Each structure stands twice: as C-alpha cells, then as structure tokens.
C-alpha cells in the first residue's frame, strides 16, 4: 500500500518533470527538470529492487550527464537568460503523431500482454553476476561500448581543437 | 577461453589495431599522407583475415557475432568501401587542411561497427555496433568546420540519429519482452504474432528505415548528404546502407522469416514509397550531391524490394546489389570530389557542362557510373536490378517489380541529364579539377568493378548465394 503510494507519487513527479523539460521556455530550467526526471527513474529502480541500477542512474545520469548538460548551457552565450519557443510549425502534427503512437504502444503493453510474474526473489549476488557478465558473456558489446567512447573522445578533440593553418 | 576463440572477430581486431596505430603514428609523423597508407594496409590485412576466416568452418563468438559466409561477404564489401573511402579522402583532406589522423581513425572505427552489424547475432552487439558507426559518421559529417552547412549536417544527423536509435532500442526491448531472448536464435524460437512482438518488430523496421534512408524516414538524408564533406557523403551513402541492410536481412529474413506474413506487406509499402518519392524528388535537383542523395533513397527502395521478396533469389539479390551499388555510387561521388571547388562543398549540374571536352576520361567514368545507376546493360547496375525484380516476381509481388521498373525508368531522366550536361552543353566556365592521382586510382578501381561485375555477374552472384545460404539454410 505504501509502496503503491510511493510509486504513484514518483510516477506523477517523473512524468510532470519530463513534460516540463519539453515545454518550459527557459533551457536552463528545462535542464533542472531533466534532473528531477532522472531522479524519479532512479526511484523506480529502487522500487524494482534493482539497487545497483538506481545508484548507477544517480551517478551517471545525474552526476555526469545532467551536470554536463548544465555546463554546456551555462557556457553557451545567451542560453541562460534567453527564452526559446518549444513550438514550431509542425507542433500539432508532431503532438498528434506522438500521442497516437504512445497510445497504441500503451494499449499493447498494458492491455494485450499477460506479463509473467517473477517467481524467485532477486539473487543476493546480483552485482557480482552483473560484473562477471560484463567481462565474460557480454564482453563484445562491453568492449564495443569502449570503442564508442574512444570515437566520442576523438570527436570531442576534433571539434574543440583550434585549426592550424 | 583461448586465443582460438577470438578468431571469429579477427578482422575487427585488425581494424582496431590499425585505427590505434593511425592515431599513434599521427603524433610524430610529418607527412600526414602516410596515415592513409597505414590505414589501407590495415584494411588489406583485415581483408586477408576475412578471406582466411571464410576458408574455416563457420564459428561464432559467444553467440554474439557469427563468422560465416554471410558475414564474410559484407566484411569484404565494407572493407573495400573503407579502403576506397580512405583513398578518396586523402587529397581532399590535404587540400582542405583537415586532420588526416582523426579522419582515418574515425573511418576505421566506423568500419568496425559496420562489419559487426553484419556479424551480429545478438541484439546487444547489433545495437552497440549500430551506435558505434553512427557516432563516427556524426563526427565525420561535421568534419569541415569552416563551412556552416557541414556543422548543420552533423547536428541534424546526430539529433535524428539519436531519435531513431531510441525507437530501435524500444523495439529491441519490446521484442525481448515478448520472447525473453536477445540472441537471434532465441528470438527465432519464440517468435509469435503477439501484439507485443509485432509492436517491437514495427519499431525495429522504423529504426532500420532511418538508417537505410527509406521513405518516410528519409527527411534527414538530402540535408546531411549535401552538407557533409563529399568524401564522407560518399562513404556513408554506401557503407551505412550495406551495414544496415546486412543486419536488416539477417534479423528479418533469417530470424523472423517464420513470421514473414507479418512484415512483408510493411516492407513492400516502404519499398514503393521509397522508390517513388526518391526518384521523383531527384528529378528537380540542381545540386549534384542532393541529386545523388535522393538517388540513394531510391536505391534503398530497390533493395527493399528484394528484402520484401524474402526468398532465396531476393536475399542473394540484396547482397549482390549492395556490392554493385557500393562501386557505382562511390565512383559517382569520386567525380563530384574531383569537380568540387575549394570551400564550396558542393557541385551544381551546370558545373558539369562541357566536361567531356576538357577531361574526356573523367567524363567517360561518370558516364559509366550514370549508366550503371540507371540500370543499363552491360553494366553491373543492370544485373543488380534484374535480380531484385526477378525475386519480387518469384515471390508473387509482380506489382512491386512493375513499380520498380517504372520508377527506374523515371530515374533515367536525371541520370542521363548529367551526361547531357557533360557531353552536349557548352561550358560557361571550363570546369576546373581538383584531380589528383590517388583520387584517380579510386575512380579507376570503381570503374573496373562496375564493368567487371557487369561482364561476369555469375561469379559475384555465386558469392552472394553462398552468403544467402547461411541466412535461409
């Protein structure tokens, strides 16, 4: 009962801040709402007994990504005070299309599927298994992700570097 | 785990070593042109590794990536394209004063992602490989930092690419929810027509549609292809298509083949839209790069015809066509690079006027590429289209083949218009060339293959059939 109340409140807060990210006219405040939304997702992970994911969510999404976004906005000229309009000529079409797609997916996910209920509790050595999995069974995607980061680094250097003439 | 277990991904490891070597050598090398040759040696070594692997019995790496005849075919296509991409960019980078080390390293990293797309037999590998080559291409699209349109292209590609990746990932999640499996083999076992599964498959089609530039997911293509540096456009127009279609075919025809009644109508509809819209929009373009962008959309439509046929001939035809398309489209872009004026980043149709008089060889090469893109025998493009449309007829999709033939007749107008400008119009100002030996070499290779595949299509079709057997058993 308490859990359900927590879930409902978190869900409302998460969705509300996600909406504000898209709708607010000031980019900086949008970024702050994004942090709130990330935090809501972290709470969901806790409710799902995925504590490690929750910690990772807070550390990576809030600690790194959101901070980076805030820095990028603060360092860009005119972004702090300027007001942007989130609407454009296609706003109506886009909203209609997204709502239709979202409704269709929700209908399928909520009403048309018999979701299996997990029989066993989450094993206690979950984090160990995750760690072992990353360097054994899932080593290819794991290493590929590191290549991805290397490419991103090269790209960042390329964009930031002064051109030598 | 022994060293032997790593062999199925040997070509990728060679490419990675090369990319790192390029970056290292870059720091203490005066003449940056050597970097291209370092990259090319790596590509050749990776090609040798692929050939050696093709002689071994098929193997896979922990159910993540398979090394079989199908992978080998696409590895060779992508390695050839990467090699030509390195060559085509060399003089261009020098002339524009851009960073050769970063460019070559990013191109090699993109190639790793692309070959793994073809090899992937697990949704995680597939997705990370997709992201790897996409990220490299986002950066490469913005490589010409002085030109605003290059930055615009990079940003547009990044935003829409991220959007499509999210849809693709959601598709993977729904398929996982429906089947409880992430390996292709596991998904094939549990595939059913449940609503959840269908929703996932639909989102996967959207994600692939973005990557191969199928209508209506093509909106980014003209702007990105026009704005990106021409060597990058050349590379991504062929390599992205080959990689994305490689995974598309393995996942749909191979893994989801049992449920093909569910997705064949969707792909047939996509094919029709893509062919018609691509060809009609190409008619009214003045910029050569923009015209080739719409033409590449149309060609994605032809390949989708083979995919929608979902039979033996169709799958082999898709492989064959992607090989042929790589050479003819790269060749056409090589000519664009040669004609491009410093800092403009694009070539208009009127700049082609009278090219035949001043540069007859280049004009002849362009004529071969244009005829092949139109689908005129005896060039390779003709056989590519022939096999694709034949497959559609065999799969009782005759109407699809008819629409394909009609729309490629329309395409003759804009391809041949280029030749009219080259051979019959008087030049306003004589075309000036940024023509250099290495670019010439790349063009020559493309010409040799377009003519060679056209003269001996059977050999290449057998290769494609060998790859197909892996997919359809």
Folded structure, characterized:
The complex is a heterodimer of chains A (165) and B (473). The longest helix of chain A has 25 residues, at 51-75. Chain A folds into two domains: 1-85, Up-down Bundle (Four Helix Bundle (Hemerythrin (Met), subunit A)); 122-165. By secondary structure, chain A is mostly helical. Chain A starts with a helix and ends in a 5-residue tail after the last helix. Chain A is globular and about 60 Å long. The model of chain A has no long low-confidence stretch (mean pLDDT 86). Chain A is built from six helices and no strands. Chain B is mainly α and 473 residues long. Chain B has a two-stranded antiparallel ribbon. In chain B, helix 13 (312-339) packs antiparallel against helix 15 (360-374). Classes of the chains: A mainly alpha (165), B mainly alpha (473). The interface between A and B is medium-sized, with 27 and 40 residues.
Spans of chain A with pLDDT under 50 lasting ≥5 residues? none
Largest interface: A-B, 27 and 40 residues
Largest sheet of chain A: none
The CATH architecture name of the largest domain in chain A reads Up-down Bundle
Overall outline of chain B: globular
Number of domains of chain B: 1
Structural class of chain B: mainly alpha
The value of Rg of chain A in angstroms is: 20 Å
Q: How many beta-strand segments of chain B?
A: 2
Mean pLDDT of chain A: 86
Distance between the termini of chain B: 29 Å
The percent range for helix content of chain B is over 70%
- β content of chain A, as a range? under 5%
